[in-house]
Amino acid sequence: MRHASRWIAALLLVPGLLWAAAAQAAFTFTRISSPVFYTDTSVTPQLPCNYVGFAVTSSTAVADGWATIGSYSSNLANSSFEDGRHHLGSFSAGQTKYAYFYVCSSYTTTGILAGQGYTITMLDRSPAIAGAVTLGSQAFTTSINNDVIQANPNSVSVIFAGPNPAVLGGIITMTVEGDTGTIGSAPGPNGPLAFTPAAYTDWRADAYELVSANVTLSGGNSGSYDNQLFLASLTSSSTTHYVVTYQFRAVTTTSTATNLSPIAEIASGTQIKHTSTTSGAYGGQLLPIDSATNTLLLSKLVSAATLPQTGGTVTYTLRVTNSSSYAVFMDDFVDTLPTGVTYVNNSSTFGGV
Question: I need a surface site. Which of 47, 207, 258, 332 has the fewest CB within 10 A?
Answer without folding.
Answer: 332
